[in-house]
């Protein structure tokens, strides 16, 4: 699993300036160390007030174990998945956690060593085998991991712990108990994986993107899963491939972590982070981790592909921009004949291999050096004209939206060159850019919106919470020195009228304190703290999560 890389805003835009260099960064090594499970719910100590109307479960996913026996993982994304549950009810909070009982976890645990390869770690041959057997094992393909440590996704009302392979685990949000569902995507549709960031229509229809490697070569596939269940055991029955897109280079397809969706279109972003399939297929033979087959090619442009959600038709018009790397999109919506594509992106995609565990555990000048060699990620908007025809003039800006600085110029038949506009002011540079973007998804995804939330990155992980107001590109900030908040989750209030009526939930870690963990609750409108629930456990820094609201009686 590849993820949320911080990258530079240095580029062609006149507003861009060099990334801010920092010195004297605090060590965050405790945030990337193995921890124990908390399998039974424990109480927390509440400070301030947690609104009594928040009833449900905040679910969080991320790595929680980084070694087995004397073998250690190399990359942050390799750690074994730990599922966290915060239950909020009547102003009180309980916490529990457990390791995902994946095949990877169980096999590693039984052998007391790493026997399943992960993104940045190649498992070593079984020492109990003879030399010839160990030699032959190098010619075997790497077995795809079911270590679903990225996020929680929802299909047909059920929650699944998910990663980017074709394995998921159905999770009961009430208890975090889970069932193993081998190769769900492969069982119902012919894909070899899917993102951990699907999108949802209001009726519950789910869309995702996944690659396939078959007789037709490599394809990017748009997946659609209907909202209805045929029976209680139904998982992905009825899932179909809505459409397929041919990569620019079938042997070097793009890596992608997410995609965008408007009311009528799926937007697939083909970016210059590439996968060398030959290197990936032979990594075990070469004694290299899968991550060695991922590379950044800045000579390649980024291409936005539009797919009609109703017909599956792939637009012949391709929207190009300079080489950028994208891991998370913010929102996409259609208005006045344009599709606004809002994404967090950077001008460099080489940072993946800097997220080695040994780098995250550094301190002093060595830690500063790692951070300052990374690039920053910033929110940007691309404006895509939807009605480009043979009659559309070339060589002129087609963006007629007032006050928009983005440009889109038809270069030739079926090719439009796009240049972004910034969705931020200069002050965002002081907070290290923004990642882990979130919105009021239920009401404003695929629609015009005003606010988004995220983490500022003046460290290798998020060190502040940010709220962006797109009306005037102003920020609200929650920051306390030495505190590291997780991805913000927006929960709307039951009587919400305005877009930001609700709260922000974030799990905050304090590496300088033993068991310095708390669930933070902010008023989403004012961005002031309402309360926090102190949790007497140590917790690693995680990736993504979701809020599952309890049924109101």
TrEMBL record:
<keyword id="KW-0496">Mitochondrion</keyword>
<dbReference type="GO" id="GO:0010436">
    <property type="term" value="F:carotenoid dioxygenase activity"/>
</dbReference>
<dbReference type="GO" id="GO:0046872">
    <property type="term" value="F:metal ion binding"/>
</dbReference>
<feature type="binding site">
    <location>
        <position position="328"/>
    </location>
    <ligand>
        <name>Fe cation</name>
    </ligand>
</feature>
<dbReference type="GO" id="GO:0016121">
    <property type="term" value="P:carotene catabolic process"/>
</dbReference>
<comment type="similarity">
    <text>Belongs to the carotenoid oxygenase family.</text>
</comment>
<dbReference type="GO" id="GO:0102076">
    <property type="term" value="F:beta,beta-carotene-9',10'-cleaving oxygenase activity"/>
</dbReference>
<dbReference type="GO" id="GO:0005739">
    <property type="term" value="C:mitochondrion"/>
</dbReference>
<protein>
    <recommendedName>
        <fullName>Carotenoid-cleaving dioxygenase, mitochondrial</fullName>
        <ecNumber>1.13.11.71</ecNumber>
    </recommendedName>
</protein>
<keyword id="KW-0408">Iron</keyword>
<feature type="binding site">
    <location>
        <position position="197"/>
    </location>
    <ligand>
        <name>Fe cation</name>
    </ligand>
</feature>
<keyword id="KW-0223">Dioxygenase</keyword>
<feature type="binding site">
    <location>
        <position position="544"/>
    </location>
    <ligand>
        <name>Fe cation</name>
    </ligand>
</feature>
<dbReference type="Pfam" id="PF03055">
    <property type="entry name" value="RPE65"/>
</dbReference>
<keyword id="KW-0560">Oxidoreductase</keyword>
<dbReference type="GO" id="GO:0003834">
    <property type="term" value="F:beta-carotene 15,15'-dioxygenase activity"/>
</dbReference>
<feature type="binding site">
    <location>
        <position position="257"/>
    </location>
    <ligand>
        <name>Fe cation</name>
    </ligand>
</feature>
<keyword id="KW-0479">Metal-binding</keyword>
<dbReference type="GO" id="GO:0042574">
    <property type="term" value="P:retinal metabolic process"/>
</dbReference>
<dbReference type="InterPro" id="IPR004294">
    <property type="entry name" value="Carotenoid_Oase"/>
</dbReference>
<comment type="function">
    <text>Broad specificity mitochondrial dioxygenase that mediates the asymmetric oxidative cleavage of carotenoids. Cleaves carotenes (pure hydrocarbon carotenoids) such as all-trans-beta-carotene and lycopene as well as xanthophylls (oxygenated carotenoids) such as zeaxanthin, lutein and beta-cryptoxanthin at both the 9,10 and the 9',10' carbon-carbon double bond. Through its function in carotenoids metabolism regulates oxidative stress and the production of important signaling molecules.</text>
</comment>
<keyword id="KW-0443">Lipid metabolism</keyword>
